[in-house]
Amino acid sequence: MAGLLTADAPRAYPVLTLQSMTTTKELWENALVELELTISKPNFNTWFRDTHIVRVEEGSIYLGVPSQFARDWLSTKFHKDILRSLRMLEEGIRNVEYVISRGSKKAPDEVWRLPPSPNELPLEAVHQKSNLNPRFTLSSFVVGPFNELANAAAQAIIRKPGIAYNPLFIYGTTGLGKTHLIQAVGNHFRANEPSRKVYYVTSERFSMDYVSALQGGGEKVQHFKEKYRQYDLLIMDDVQFLANRDKIKEEFFHLFNFLHDNNKQLVFSSDQHPNVIQGLEDRLKSRLNAGMVVSVTPPDHQSRLAIVRQKASVHNVAFPDDVLDYLATTIEGNVRELEGALNALLIQTEMRGEALTLPEAKILLRGSGAGQKKVISVQEVVKTVSSFYGVEEGSIYEKTRRKEVVRPRQVIMYILREDFRISFPTIGEKLGGRDHTTVIHSCDKIRNDLQVDSVLSNELHQIRMTLK
Amino acid sequence: MKFECKTAELFSTVSTTARFSERRASLPVLGSILITAEGDRLLVRATNLECGVEITIPAKIQSEGIVAIPALVFAGFLGNARGNSITALLSGELFKIQSLSASASIKTIPHEDFPLLPRVSAEKSFSIKCSDLSRVIRAVSYCASLSAVKPELQSIMFYADAGKFFAVATDSFRLAEKSVPLNSGGSVPQLLVPVRSASEIMRILESQVGNVEIYYNENQLSFQTDRIYYTGRLLDGTFPNYKQIIPKSFSTESLVLLDDFGIALKSLSVFSDKFAQVSLSIDPSKKTISLTSRNPDVGEQTSTIKTTAKGDAVTISFNSRYLSDGLQSILGESVRLNSNGPGKPMLIKDASDDSFLYIAMPMNR
């Protein structure tokens, strides 16, 4: 409604057809303002709470009230006041009827249902909700050198939840199966220990829950806290999105402490090492580091081949070996892209009803990003890093051990090793003929320093961003 | 207003009524009881807007009138009053009462704000024995949920079908169902009575004899005995479809003496941990059930009781209270404990009585 209804304000809507909810809502709110002035506060709070206009019909207003107590009392005690205050706003109103309805209170009940505990009676089918996708199991998870550590940690957690590694923090770039792995942990835990509570949540969903709890007020916040504190295994995906949200980080911090202190297992995933996530306080970083931090790296050729075979067998489609090999060779890095390319081949195969040959597959995959890997030379890395630290590019290759050169040189070695998988001897050779043990030492040094030095981790993050 | 009536009668009336008053309500008058003196009787009324009650008692009325006074103050005075009769008089804003040995004056509350008690139209009703209704409520009410998360579980669900009247309650960890024969009314739809109101109904009807006619509509349930009118709100909601979770077949069935089982549970409670965990090992081949309870700070105890059992040997842990709670409603001498293994609900029944059943969910581990 445009402003308060004053005597000379034009009536914006026809009186007898107050149909839209907003109009009747505003009408009743304005009437309540009037009523509040004439009725004592305790009376007003007791009797007019949870009232609303249900509908308007031919000049009669149907007022929804929460109980028969309220209906009887309003209609005998306050009927005149109600009618008068409504008539002041709308002259055409002839009568007010009272109906018992709890429509105004329905919504919150549905939002706040605690996810059920497995040792409750299975009263309804919806009680089984852990938010886990049953599709993700460990048996469909292809293990290779690139993720065997993460897989081993996951297995350990399934055997000894809350004891083995708590929290488990898995990081790696997109499309490497982090979500698959952590959901599989949840699914196995649930299968092994049906009586204990598992919950999978993305950090985004967690934030939304928290925000809506805050909007709902004290009780809802309490619900929120209780909801998340009841789990025996909490899995949170993409925690990097928690950064830069101060209130939520604080809530997360308390939740973490509560669950961790009670030996509940926590599993997190992120696209970066916790130390590198921007906007995360040290107290959170150190906690996320407390258990086990493992990375999943892009799969090697053998693993990619195994993944392609596994996915193909799920769909019951046979591909010639050379096609699969081509797929695994050309699409590097991201498993999701690999899956996408495989799906493209699958559809073609199904449409044609016969197996694809290698040349056909090559044509099909031409546009899908296969073989379009970004190539960065060692020189470029050296150039980027040295300009970042403000040292002369040439000094990196020299046999100098000046402090301001040593650190950038080590960083270069670390990046070449970690991000580009170049062998230690090659790195040594490219950077001025150094021994491979020097390179190994440098990489180890940076890796160790990263654990304690947040400045360094920030620097690395920025360098990586410029290299991308 | 001036009247005289019997002390004991007034005290029991006022203390029953006072339980319906609500001290913490935003409306102060809800913490009071309303006394109306008319003809040759007193009407004593209280309500918390969930449920309300009005009790009639005979009195010698010298002048008619109406007054609202704080329920607990009046009940407190009457509880310690001596002598056979009480005289009361309203003078200005003070309600003056006189017993054999004491006199008091209580500040009154403006009675104009005192709510009406809704009357339920007499269209739908059923008739049931007072003692039966209070019995079914007693048999299941301890199972109702205390948490407000699922309001429908904070209630006792009544319904009737094929001449049988059922009461059901669950907090989603255990569930109890009790049935009694229904006099008339045939079938009754699901009525969700808030557990607090149900306990009051139980207390009121316990002392009554004969039948009571219960009236209901979709929002409200009421009844009238010769002296008492009760009315209360029904909960809006759907009770879970509990029939489907009552197991029909079992992998282990055993029969124990109620006394054996009850005493074992009670003695084990000394050693129970903070979760009151007790584990039951049913061994059909040895014909024993051993119950173990362990508390790392205290010690542990194992009790072995005799059983006749068939099926698989099984070990399940329970919250011992969830087991003992169910036993209090069993009247026969022996109890059936029927299980489908760990993680599955266990059915507890009176071996000689089909009208009561109880389901408990095992604990974690």
Automatic annotation (TrEMBL), chain A:
Any one Gene Ontology BP term: regulation of DNA replication
UniProt-listed PROSITE patterns: DNAA
Residue span of region Domain IV, binds dsDNA: 350-468
Domain spans labelled Chromosomal replication initiator DnaA C-terminal: 377-446
InterPro entries: AAA+_ATPase (IPR003593), Chromosome_initiator_DnaA (IPR001957), Chromosome_initiator_DnaA-like (IPR020591), Chromosome_initiator_DnaA_CS (IPR018312), DnaA_C (IPR013159), DnaA_dom (IPR013317), DnaA_N_dom (IPR024633), DnaA_N_sf (IPR038454)
GO MF: ATP binding; DNA replication origin binding; lipid binding
Binding residues annotated for ATP, in chain numbering: G175, G177, K178, T179
Ranges for domain AAA+ ATPase: 164-299
Ranges for region Domain I, interacts with DnaA modulators: 1-107
Stored SUPFAM superfamilies: P-loop containing nucleoside triphosphate hydrolases (SSF52540), TrpR-like (SSF48295)
Pfam families assigned to the protein according to its UniProt record, in alphabetical order: Bac_DnaA (PF00308), Bac_DnaA_C (PF08299), DnaA_N (PF11638)
Domain of life: Bacteria
Major site of localization recorded for this protein: cytoplasm
Subunit structure: Oligomerizes as a right-handed, spiral filament on DNA at oriC.
Family to which this protein belongs: Belongs to the DnaA family.
Role description: Plays an essential role in the initiation and regulation of chromosomal replication. ATP-DnaA binds to the origin of replication (oriC) to initiate formation of the DNA replication initiation complex once per cell cycle. Binds the DnaA box (a 9 base pair repeat at the origin) and separates the double-stranded (ds)DNA. Forms a right-handed helical filament on oriC DNA; dsDNA binds to the exterior of the filament while single-stranded (ss)DNA is stabiized in the filament's interior.
Name assigned to this protein: Chromosomal replication initiator protein DnaA
Organism: Candidatus Adlerbacteria bacterium GW2011_GWB1_54_7
From TrEMBL, chain B:
Principal subcellular localization: cytoplasm
Domain of life, per lineage: Bacteria
SUPFAM superfamilies linked to this entry: DNA clamp
Matches recorded under Pfam families: DNA_pol3_beta, DNA_pol3_beta_2, DNA_pol3_beta_3
Domain DNA polymerase III beta sliding clamp N-terminal: 1-118
Keywords from the named record: Cytoplasm, DNA replication, DNA-binding, DNA-directed DNA polymerase, Nucleotidyltransferase, Transferase
GO-annotated cellular components: cytoplasm; DNA polymerase III complex
Binding partners and assembly: Forms a ring-shaped head-to-tail homodimer around DNA.
Name this polypeptide is given: Beta sliding clamp
Annotated source species: Candidatus Adlerbacteria bacterium GW2011_GWA1_54_10
